Amino acid sequence: MDDSSLRFRTIAIFGMIALPMGMLGLPIAIYLAPLYSGHYGISLGIVGGALIGTRLLDVVTDPLVGIISDKWRPAIGRRRVWLIIGTLTLMAGVFLLFRPVENPNAVYFVFAVSLAYFGLTTLRLPYIAWAGELSFDYDTRTRITSTMQFFTTVGLLASTLIPAAMAWQAESEVSSLEVMRAISLVFLILLPITSAIVFFTVPEPEVPPVQTKFNMLGSVKLLASNRPFVILSVVILISNLGEAFRQSTTVFFARDVVGHENIGQVYFFYFVVGLIMIPFWAWLGKRIEKHRAYAAALFILAVTNAAMVALSYGQTLQFMLLFILKGTCFGGIILLPYAMIADTVDIDTAESQDRQQGLFYSVEAMIQKLGFALGAGSPLIILGWIGYNADGESSQGPLQALSLIYSMVPAVLALIASLLIWNYSLTAARHKELRKIIDEKARAQAE
Hints:
Radius of gyration: 21 Å
Number of helices: 19
Strand content: under 5%
């Protein structure tokens, strides 16, 4: 599909699947530990260790799915077929994880979270690889990823509105179990509908012949020699590690350090601001280059995270304002790296004329999940070691440790990531040169 035929309607339809997928991030990040630890009594150490262990399995599953989606060429489409596989697998995983049996044990939790993560892999990876192939234009790719991020943020907003509406209707605080069940119901309705619409309406670009058989050592060398991809991967790992540190302890910090009980309300305004700012980050990426805009977003994240350490009990307004300020950079941190990864694939394409979007995005997903796994599990394990009470803590020592984990660790990591990406080498001018080489080689092969 060439860029002239890629209308906004196609981009918008394609981006719809990101809405239900976007609904999963918030409840998994902030409600999973309170549900399985606070409600069902599984220790924080086990929950944190299970989150790390299950995500480490993605070291195997992510590259496997990415490679298969690159090399397997079924008649219905090498990316489209995964809409069926991924949708069914993810729905099963979410049902088990969000709507657990009575008194689930640690084995149940590990199985449910593993199935949900694997389902997300089988749906998300081929979908993102498909997005990278919809257009080969430097700026159009940003438009595609910004549209996907728009729907992702709408999904995140929905996941904040659902518990807020439940609390308003009940006129009291609702449990994590009730929230997870309600969110899962909406998700289980929306995902098959949006997947079906994309399956039947969005055409796949023409697929080039398989250039080479898969070779693990060759793939590792290919990725390692792609310097922009390596730098971007390191930045994504560091920034996701920091964000996961913050996210997995948000409920505890808001409740016990600041005294803000309605975290759903805070996240609602956070994502509203993030949604409003998505066009700005797409514009800024075009104006000053994607990597510079990405660095700016990470710097804002670092400053706002660091400011959280000064908050004390009762400063709920200050907490909300800092949280909303942090929301302004949310879109930039998510959409810009995806567009930049698509550009790094063209370095390989310029040499081999192959399109291995699945391989590149699978490694990116593996790195991203590794960052989230370590970041989500590590603070819970640390809090468990120091005796933090997940049902509510008032002792000064554990609360000070929680404040440092929530604010300063993410702040330092975001600052490091911002500095690393500032002088990124794959600029718009360099990408234009790559596309010229790719087009020339394609014409030579056609002749």
